[in-house]
Design brief:
- 15% of the residues are buried.
- Helices cover 49% and strands 20% of the residues.
- It is elongated, with a radius of gyration of 32 Å.
- By secondary structure, it is α+β, with helices and mostly antiparallel strands.
- Strand 1 and strand 2 form a beta hairpin.
- It starts with a strand and ends with a helix.
- It has 3 domains: 113 residues, Alpha-Beta Plaits (2-Layer Sandwich), CATH 3.30.70.1050; 97 residues, Chitinase A, domain 3 (Roll); 139 residues, Trigger factor, domain 2.
- The strands form 3 sheets. Strands 6, 7, 8, 9 and 10 form a 5-stranded antiparallel beta sheet that branches.
Length: 426
């Protein structure tokens, strides 16, 4: 087999492969073995027909078609190994010469992962910032819990700060069209919580049950949805009921109602421990992300467009799943963002590129560090994951080869990141 390699760009290789009879002879034999069960001749048991007789009794067009498929696949895989290429998508194939079973020449255009130059990741040093929980943070959680446990007493009077108002609302733009996400039915709004856009709660204060009101206010210029930044929206609201909130006294009885605590001090200590765990986990994630970004800066890698496009698809699928829970369609989401489907994809390209870069670099580092997962480690992880599910169907899902491959990859990634953190904190 002769291979001519042309590097079209860092992530695209053109391979011209030429094979002679010696290269093709094993492929021909394998093709005949594969097709042999389809040939039935008198005097021979099924599957026992000699290959030379199999060849004579096959439809030649079907035989050559099957042979070409097997030959191209076999030669392509040999070429990948010989040229040390890592494809990221199926190649485009152009057949230039074919003399049945004696000569084959074809050209493949292969999207690949290009040359990777790892930075000196072992020399990167990053200190971890200690996590502390202040009394103010604990008290904020206690105050929130106090509000959730408050008794609600319906009142027939004007709403004021501190009340909970159940209301219907609908927002429309300057054209009178409904604004995505600006609508609710019997929504509980705690006045004074400042959970809605500035100016909204002020227009609710003073309204009595069954009263309606229409008002126009602008969305903040830094609002999360770009299409609504600074835009004026007209709201029509109806107050269904007003509840006066009677918050419980902060004492040991309050702690006992909140959970298995004898004293308020025990409740606060438990909250502090939970906050510490959450903040430590968040700090660890942020630290690892910063470390990986630093490694990426010191490394050189050309990311294939195909992998980035695939990652964009994953990001958008995650978004679409979240929209299902919010009861919003993809079209409504794009309209609210003020972008087309193509523009939305391009907005995600930077984040997707970063994800792909870090994924490839982690794979390279894992290989360089010879990081593996022992069978007993893997079995323990699967066993622990199965223990989290009571449903037999969910447990059996973990036995699927593709699921186990994904779990194994995650375990290798975890061990690789731990190794990098070890180098950085020495």
């Amino acid at each position: 087999m002769h291979i001519t390699k042309v590097q079209k760009n860092p992530n695209l290789v053109e391979l011209t492969i030429t094979a002679n009879e010696a290269d093709l002879s094993p492929v021909k034999a394998n093709t005949l073995k594969k097709l042999a069960p389809n040939v039935k001749l008198a005097g021979f048991r099924e599957g026992k027909v000699p290959l030379n007789m199999v060849e004579k009794n096959l439809d030649q067009a079907a035989f050559q078609s099957e042979f070409l498929d097997m030959a191209v696949n076999a030669l392509y895989n040999q070429a990948l190994t010989q040229e040390d290429l890592r494809p990221v998508a199926n190649p485009e194939m152009n057949l230039s010469k074919f003399v049945p079973f004696t000569l084959l020449e074809f050209t493949l255009t292969v999207p690949v992962i290009g040359t990777i130059k790892l930075g000196d990741y072992k020399s990167i040093k990053m200190k971890k910032t200690p996590v502390t929980i202040e009394a103010k943070q604990v008290n904020e959680v206690v105050a929130s819990l106090q509000k959730r446990m408050a008794e609600r007493a319906p009142v027939i009077r004007a709403a004021k700060d501190g009340d909970e108002v159940m209301l219907d609302f609908k927002g429309t733009d300057e054209k009178g069209e409904a604004v995505g996400g600006a609508e609710g039915k019997d929504y509980p709004l705690a006045l004074g919580s400042n959970t809605f856009i500035p100016g909204f709660e002020e227009n609710v204060v003073g309204l009595k049950p069954t009263e309606t009101k229409t008002f126009t206010i602008p969305f903040p210029k830094d609002y999360g949805v770009k299409a609504l930044q600074g835009k004026k929206v007209t709201f029509e609201i109806t107050v269904n009921s007003v509840n006066e909130l009677v918050e419980p006294k902060l004492d040991d009885d309050f702690a006992a109602k909140a959970g298995p605590f004898k004293t308020l001090a025990e409740l606060k200590e438990d909250i502090k421990k939970q906050l510490l765990v959450e903040r430590e986990q968040e700090a660890e994630r942020n630290y690892e992300e910063a470390l990986l970004q630093e490694i990426a800066k010191k490394s050189k890698i050309s990311v294939p467009k195909e992998l980035v496009d695939e990652q964009i698809e994953r990001i958008e699928n995650e978004e679409k799943q979240n929209l299902v829970y919010r009861g919003q369609t993809w079209e409504e989401h794009l309209k609210a963002e003020g972008v087309t489907a193509d523009e939305h994809k391009e907005q995600k390209r930077g984040a997707a590129t970063s994800r792909v870069e870090i994924g490839i670099l982690l794979s390279e580092i894992a290989e360089a560090e010879k990081i593996t997962v022992e069978p007993k480690e893997f079995d323990a992880r699967i066993k622990a994951m199965k223990a989290q599910y009571q449903d037999a169907a969910a447990q059996s899902e973990l036995d699927k080869p593709e699921v186990q491959r994904d779990i194994l990859a995650r375990m290798i990634t975890e061990k690789t990141i731990n190794k990098l953190v070890g180098y950085a904190t020495k």
